[in-house]
Amino acid sequence: MFRIIELHVNGTRRRVDVDSDRSLLSVLRDDLDLTGSKYGCGEGQCGACTVLIDGVPTRSCITQVSSLAGKQITTIEGLERNGRLHPLQEAFLEADALQCGYCTPGMIMSAVGLLRKNPDPTEAEIVRYMEGNVCRCGTYPRIVAAIARAAKGGKEGGRK
Amino acid sequence: MNHEPQTTDELQTSIEPERYELSSLPFYHFTLGRRDFIKALGGGIVVVFVVTDALAVQESGGGRAQSGERTPQEIAAWLHIAEDGAVTVYTGKVEVGQNARTSLTQVVSEELRVQPSSIHLTMGDTDLTPFDMGTFGSRTTPVMVPQLRKVAAAAREVLIGLAAEAMKADRASLTVADGKVSNAAAKQSLSYGQLTKGQKLLKAVTDNAPTTPASQWRITGRSLPKVDGRNFVTGKHAFAGDTKLPGLLYGKVVRPSAFGASLAAVDTKQAEAMPGVVVVRDGDFVGVAASSEQTASRAAAAIRAEWKTTPQTSARELFDHLKKSAAKSQGSDSRSRNAAGSIEQGLAAADKKLERTYTVAYIAHAPLEPRAAAAEWKDNKLTVWTGTQRPWGVRSELAQAFHIPESRVRVIVPDTGSGYGGKHTGDAAIEAARLARPAGKPVKVVWTREEEFTWAYSRPAGVIDIVSGVRNDGTITAWEFHNYNSGGSGIRTMYDVPNQLIEFHSAHSPLRQGSYRGLAATANHFARETHMDELAHELKMDPLKFRLKNLKDARLRAVFEAAAEKFGWDPARMFPNRGLGIAGGFEKGGYVATCAEVSIDRPSGKVKILRVVTAFECGAIVNPDQLKNQVEGSIVMGIGGALFEAIDFENGKVLNPRFSRYRVPRFSDVPLIETVLIDRKDLPSAGAGETPIVGLAPAVGNAIFDATGVRLRSLPMVPSGVVRHHT
Fold this sequence. Notes:
With 160 residues, chain A is α+β, with helices and mostly antiparallel strands. Chain A has two domains: 2-78, Beta-grasp domain (Ubiquitin-like (UB roll)); 87-155, DNA polymerase, domain 1 (Orthogonal Bundle), CATH 1.10.150.120. Helices cover 34% and strands 17% of the residues of chain A. Chain A has a five-stranded mixed sheet, with helices on both faces. The longest helix of chain A has 16 residues, at 140-155. In chain A, 56% of the residues are buried. In chain B, helix 13 (391-402) crosses helix 14, helix 16 runs parallel beside helix 20 (696-708) and helix 19 (624-644) packs across helix 20 (696-708). With 727 residues, chain B is an alpha+beta fold. Chain B folds into three domains: 31-227, Aldehyde Oxidoreductase, domain 4 (2-Layer Sandwich), CATH 3.30.365.10; 240-305 and 371-446, Aldehyde oxidase/xanthine dehydrogenase, molybdopterin binding domain (Aldehyde Oxidoreductase, domain 4, 2-Layer Sandwich); 329-362 and 458-715, 2-Layer Sandwich (Aldehyde Oxidoreductase, domain 4). The relative contact order of chain B is 0.12. The model of chain B is unreliable at 1-32 and 54-73 (pLDDT under 50). Chains A and B meet through helix 1, helix 2, helix 3, helix 4 and helix 5 of A and helix 8 and helix 19 of B.
């Protein structure tokens, strides 16, 4: 059952010796020490564990690690480049779109997926796309504002 | 060891914050001697704040000074300026998303005249920070803010003194700004680092240092963003569940089959045979630890446990059960009884009488970070990293569970993934520590969402009976209010009623219950403000005018008027399938009024909250944007309990212990939220994390009535999302 799997995480090849039915979330957190992705529900209902798989937001808590050979995995730790934050990270700070911050990595990763697909979403489109991410502190209006702000910044020549 | 969450008497009595205060005084206090104290911090200067006012003494566990100790015992906070000028503030408060780290930093920055970025707060560490009762009851702003203000102001005065000496100048000729003391005439200035270099000073202060009045605030009163926000948007912040330790094992607990079950028999052979698995059985506690979470889960699943169950009360019989058990438990808690005049006479003087019953369901805090702890036994000492609102409470629980002195337990609280009143106990900490002891290695326990919904405690359910009398001119003549089980917070009416009887009755709770944001103020405001609306409609009066007619309190009137004005309150407005509602109240030093507009879809009956306006006043505002964030968050969280959240349970089992079955507010549930903040610089600052939640449910319920004529008297009001229109 154990086998060596090569994962492409945040632009780096990482070899892990894990049980093939392990969840991606547990491998990221426990084997690769990438604890930015969070456990919130274990059933793909809250979005705290969201990462990008080939650019698509995916719930890592219900994704088996064996399904990911050859795919590009991006976690929250992979967004910052050379000390420069991603526009969505900047926007979350500017809009103060967090309280406890536990949902924040998953929110940002989902939003990255949204803006890749739809660089200029309406508020209704943001709400529909983000519906699977839960913020118990209730900062939803600020998160919507942050995503809209990042989208606007992108159009004005910021990083996509 | 019997540590499992039960409906214990202790929890029954811990609904109210004042009871926590009574039950949670520590056995030990800060006992570092003066020398140890300085040694622990290195050189520089240390300023400690000695509590003198009675309320704060109680909160910091003072008033029990041990004789012979040279360092004062009644210490609420201290501040260290190192020889390089770095400022570290030590406070027992914790950060759970309410942004206390930011507001407390602002206060120190203001008084010490240094940039917020050069201040670090060490929070909630039982070895490093002074005792604190807990981060709850909206106490951080009214108690810790002024204390840190005084300690920082005192430190500033000490630095001025050092500078005067060094510059051989008169104190009065010196000014302080941006981390430097300057003598303009001599064109000389010294940074705090220069001043503290080579110093080993300990200065104890009471409350004599001059602090900056609110009218002259330059850093407090402004919207400083979350000070360490970058750690959160990059995923770098380590929550308790992210703790890494050398040799760390993962723990799992074998849970009982139902509430109230006891362990009849257990077969752990298979699990024990698994390589690297540690199995612990201690009384009814059965758990495992292993080198991976998956192995721990498999080992736990391999344990065959037989549980002896007893019949338990189910959700459908809950409210009868609460009232019956309240009657059996010999009535009420006298501390929550408030009587004036005569109900009989009040009702006799009334033109109309109204008798109504309201209910509230159990709901879950469901903090997105579930309970988590890592525990390590090392050098005869237990250290635990856990997310809790009561570090010292958890320390006591651990000391009791393991029969060791509190001095051998250290609890460290990383900034926590929210609490909402739900993280007052040390369940995961005790479990991790119990497993770590025989394992000989540190163990981490992270509750699953299902464990969180099932074995954490809930907001108390309750039944509220109201009997009232009014005259046709809108004067309330009688007000009788009985709350069964949900609690006494916010139980008193702010309206002026000459004849009143208000009582809280404790009852037997089938579920484990405890604090929840706002405590029972949400339930009591729901009942009271719904009933006020019912009375207004009986009298065919504008619900706002009816309230104001019976209300003298100027601060509460002001928020009602401010909310109504911003909202455009117009009781005569009639749009088909739309409705408006208003509600308000007072709790924990904060005044709130909420207006809501709802729409009802036809023919489905689906309820949607379109717009909410909240006016809030809590004295002088420390950080307007963070305050607004708390008000908005309260409104969003309040939507869940108002409309659809409820724990469903049957015979000792929770039937909806997942986010797929227990609906919490999501993006699409959020209305347009507008917040009016009233800044009273002439009044002391009060906390704001809780009270803004209390007006939402009644405002929405009153709006649903306005739209449909259907009066909803149970929280949640529309569990199916739909209101049936009776015509």
